[in-house]
Amino acid sequence: MNKLDPVRPAPLAETGALAPIQDYLNEIHARVSKIEGGAPADYIPELGKVDPNLFGIAIATVDGQLYTVGDARVPFTIQSVSKPFMYGYALQHHGRPRVLEQVGVEPTGEAFNSIVLDEVANRPFNPMVNAGAIAIAEMMQGGTLDQRINNMLELFSSLAGRKIEVDEAVYKSELATGHRNRAIAYMMLNTAMIERDPEDVLDLYFRQCALKVTACDLAIMAATLANDGTNPVTDHKIFDTQYVRDVLSVMNSCGMYDYAGEWAYEVGMPAKSGVSGCIIAAIPGQIGICVYAPPIDKQGNSVRGIAVCQDISREFQLHAFYNHTNVRSVLRRDYRADIVRSNRLRTLEERTLLAEAGHSISVLEAQGALFFGSTEQLLRRLTVLARDSKYLIVDFKRVHHADRAACKLIVRAVRAMAASGTELVFASIDDEGALDRLTRALAESEEGHAVRQFRDVDAALEWCEDQVLASDGSSVGTKFSLNQINLFDGLTPDECRLVEGIVRPLSSTRATSSCARAIRPSCSSSSRAHGQRGNPSPRQARQA
């Protein structure tokens, strides 16, 4: 496993612009402090000695900002909140198929310490209950128990961004009283779900539960899951993104034990609780949360912790199924070239022809982020426009992101359009910007290589207009008399003839190539006419 990166403490929230979030935490802490009920867990004697009035909240963002209130820096033991991270370690080092042989992913509806296995496969139902966590603990790498303990400590130190140690008093308390867990371990030895000496496996399991952490530590750990497996403070990549998905999925369905269904309904955030009175929650791409308040309910969850998470979810609309995105907003507008034309100076004859035939050119402007839902909306509208368009321009100027699903759908659309009578044209795809993934996807497909791409929608419109004019037999690029150009209004016919004798014509290919060179230094040939990518035919080059 990777060595611990140099520790960089998470920056605390500053005042000023960041004050509203801190003010909210102060308010909710004061409000929830009045809630009574529950009691510290006493079946582990050391946990029963904890001050029940302790109450801290910490929120860590995916860029490492930390907000705290109350007893957020008071140490306590991690208990079952260690389980998601041990599960992530097992996935990272053994792979999904191997881990699934050992532990399932189904909710049980039973208490977290139930002595029960899946009757079909004889494996624990999921890694969030004690049986599953004990089986996962055996998967910690190391030739000896000491090596496995050191690797476990290194894992959690990497997650917290600081050195994490075992609370020896709590560890010994669990070791002395963990008879139910021993029953679970020996049952799994009997069914071959574990192979090592159960006492060795339990020793590691009891130590992982007795790790000494703070709410700040756990908020950073939760933010690591929210940040696709990268610690937002140290930038240490701990889990692959594919395994973070697995961890969050199991947290969402099983993390709150037999309260998981109601939690998913009311709060809707992947979470994990521990009997020491802590709850963590991770909102992918946004924040990690930890609440610490020792009094727990009969299901083993912090009473105040549940109240805080309910309030945060409701206040900031963080429920997993609260949809912030309206996919229809991807369509900015569409128009035809008989109404809106390029900035190319045209003769009266050309303008008249484009007014009549320009409707065969359609422009569709996209905006926002492209993902499955929004791209489906975009392609559906593209299909409608293609029915009566000979040229269809898609302008990506206002698109700031395209994910893998969007790129795959667009490449499929290019392939389908290649077999139709409509020529698809793309504009404003910056191959060094936010759409570089789309650029690569197009370059890797045969059809994408052939699609015409222009630096902006005006250049794309001009090219399409030239094709329409050429197909009608018009001479594109007709030379203008000076008296047809507004710049020379006021000159007499003799003066116009004098100026015409000394001016030098400049071809559009030459002018546009110069512009292309200014934008992209590597573009130096006529193949980049109008900022176009790809190799135009000789006719296209002449028309440019």
Automatic annotation (TrEMBL):
GO molecular function annotations of the record: glutaminase activity
Biased composition (Polar residues): 522-544
Annotated Gene3D superfamilies: DD-peptidase/beta-lactamase superfamily (3.40.710.10), STAS domain (3.30.750.24)
Keyword Acetylation belongs to the record: yes
The EC number(s) this enzyme carries: 3.5.1.2
Superkingdom as given in the UniProt entry: Bacteria
Location of region: Disordered: 519-544
Annotated keywords: Acetylation, Hydrolase
Protein's GO biological process: glutamate biosynthetic process; L-glutamine catabolic process
Catalysed reactions, as listed in the record: L-glutamine + H2O = L-glutamate + NH4(+)
Span of domain STAS: 351-464
Top EC group: hydrolase
Residues reported to bind substrate: 80, 130, 174, 181, 205, 257, 275
NCBIfam families xrefs: Gln_ase
Assembly with partners or alone: Homotetramer.
Family (UniProt): Belongs to the glutaminase family.
Protein name: Glutaminase
Lineage: Bacteria, Pseudomonadati, Pseudomonadota, Alphaproteobacteria, Hyphomicrobiales
